[in-house]
Design goal:
Blueprint: E1 9-13, E2 19-25, E3 36-44, E4 50-55, E5 66-67, E6 70-73, H1 80-92, E7 105-109, E8 112-120, E9 135-141, H2 143-152, H3 161-175, E10 181-185, H4 191-201, H5 211-226, E11 230-235, E12 238-246, E13 251-257, H6 266-275, E14 284-289, H7 297-306, E15 309-316, E16 320-327
Parallel strand pairs: 3-8, 13-14
Antiparallel strand pairs: 1-2, 3-6, 4-5, 4-9, 7-8, 10-11, 11-12, 12-13, 14-16, 15-16
């Protein structure tokens, strides 16, 4: 952390993280309703090891304990990232550009806000210039070693430490949305999320107008899960695509994609998995909206793009006008 001097000043913030224009001298007690900004930087190398530092035994606040890469309070006029850059330079002698980085997460504490930056950098510990007033030594440590140190009582007891090693990977995965999407055969554990998605799209499906019909559909989904004729697309653990099919009738019975996840080829990916179980000696059939139906434009175009051909008109449950489409070759 930054050198403790009587002249170090901090900006004072409101609880909404707005600067008040007032300043605070480090070492003085903050008044009620006054807050300040703290930053931490966690440096991971390409082996997913964390750069950790051991605090000096004469340093106030967790003396002689092992800590994250760097951390300290922002001084007057600094932004969060500027404070992080300064702490890296002061404590480890590192010059890293964080101008395009945002904190991965922020933890609010009694006197302020603590921004945590997680960055990838294969820095050489032998070339670091350590701040002798603050840091004894540094080293790379993997998750197992860090958690062992925490268990032994030699690492500052951050409550989130066990999550830290996977957090950056998790964030990167969800920022790269497509890489977080996977298509699987649905299981009972997916049912609640499946039905939650259904609530979003059911207006577009005839036969789901009443609670009784929705419950019947839920039981149908369960049966299909048991016989592995239910496919879902997951974003993390959230269902964003659903498909039911019948191998007996060589039929695609129901398919929908979450409105916020369309144009990601989810429908075609689910159909590709379905076709692996279908009888190639018979055409695959699906019933969809007729040409004059306003709801029919997108699904009809989709099925034609996949290779389905128009067939005869029909009625859904002897009531709603639909049309059959056939996929004869795949």
């Amino acid at each position: 952390m930054s050198n403790t001097t009587p002249t170090e000043l901090w900006d004072i913030y409101t609880k909404e993280r707005v600067k008040t224009g007032k300043l605070h001298k480090r070492g003085d007690k903050l008044s009620l309703g006054e807050y300040h900004l703290v930053v931490h930087v966690c440096i991971f190398n390409s082996k997913n090891e964390l750069l950790i530092q051991q605090r000096q035994p004469f340093k106030s606040g967790w003396p002689n304990m092992w800590d994250l890469s760097v951390g300290g309070s922002a001084i007057v006029g600094e932004t969060s990232s500027q404070a992080a850059v300064r702490e890296l330079k002061e404590e480890l002698g590192l010059n890293l550009d964080l101008s395009n980085e945002m904190p991965k997460f922020t933890i609010n504490f009694q006197e302020g806000f603590d921004d945590y930056y997680l960055i990838k950098a294969d820095v050489d510990v032998l070339n670091m210039i350590l701040q002798q007033e603050e840091v004894q030594t540094v080293k790379w440590a993997d998750k197992e070693e860090v958690l062992k140190m925490q268990h032994e009582g030699t690492f500052i007891p951050y409550w989130f430490l066990d999550k830290l090693f996977n957090y950056s990977q998790w964030c990167d995965s969800f920022q790269k949305e497509d890489s977080a999407i996977k298509v699987v055969y649905a299981k009972e554990e997916n049912l609640s999320s499946w039905m939650s998605m259904l609530e979003i799209v059911k207006w577009n499906f005839p036969g789901l107008e009443t609670e009784e019909k929705v419950n019947e559909y839920k039981n149908t989904v369960r049966k299909n899960m048991d016989r592995e004729t239910a496919i879902c697309t997951l974003f993390g653990n959230v269902v964003v695509g659903i498909l039911l099919f019948s191998t007996k009738y060589n039929m695609l019975c129901c398919m929908a994609v979450h409105p916020e996840f369309r144009r990601k080829h989810i429908g075609s990916k689910m159909i590709h998995i379905m076709l692996q179980k279908m009888d190639k000696s018979r055409p695959v059939v699906v019933e969809t909206f007729r040409n004059e139906d306003e709801k029919g434009k997108a699904p009809r175009a989709f099925y034609k793009n996949i290779g389905f051909e128009e067939g005869e008109v029909c009625l859904f449950e002897n009531d709603y006008p639909e049309q059959k489409f056939y996929l004869k070759k795949w």
